[in-house]
Amino acid sequence: MQVQEDQMESRVRDVEQVERQMSDLSQMMQRLALMVHEQEAMVERIDSTTEQSLLNLEKGRMEIEKYHESVTSNRNLGIKVFMIFVMFFVFYVVFLV
After folding, report:
1. 22, burial (CB in 10 Å: exposed 0-12, middle 13-18, buried 19+)
2. What is the mean pLDDT of each run of 10 residues along the chain (97 residues)?
3. What is the pLDDT of residue 95?
4. Is the pTM for the entire model greater than 0.90?
5. How far is CA 39 from the centre of its chain?
6. What is the pLDDT, as a whole number, of residue 92?
7. What secondary structure does DSSP assign to the chain, as a single string?
8. What is the C-alpha radius of gyration for the chain, rounded to an integer number of angstroms?
């Protein structure tokens, strides 16, 4: 009879331990859900900021392309003007001197 009572008490203790563990697990899950909910706004703000950064990056790339085209066309204009000066110099040296 004593053995059965000891087994019964052991089972009761085991069941109580399982109940405590389940309660602890439930509390951890609730805290986790709260943390996820609290961070939702931050994640959305990060997402929005990332999208805005991507748009700004694309605008910056377009501006750099415009500047490159401008510099390239100015370089060609400079070369043309230089060639005209060289032609005038050659003309002056050959025909006027």
Report:
1. exposed
2. 85 93 96 92 91 94 90 80 90 81
3. 82
4. no
5. 17
6. 85
7. -HHHHHHHHHHHHHHHHHHHHHHHHHHHHHHHHHHHHHHHHHHHHHHHHHHHHHHHHHHHHHHHHHHHHHHHHHHHHHHHHHHHHHHHHHHIIIII-
8. 41
Whole-number Å distance between alpha carbons of 72 and 65: 10
The pLDDT assigned to 97 comes to 66
Q: What's the one-letter identity of residue 80?
A: K
Nearest in space to 69 (alpha carbons), one of 79, 77, 58: 77
Cα–Cα distance measured from residue 22 to residue 15, given in angstroms and rounded to the nearest whole number: 10
Supply 29's token pair: 């899950």
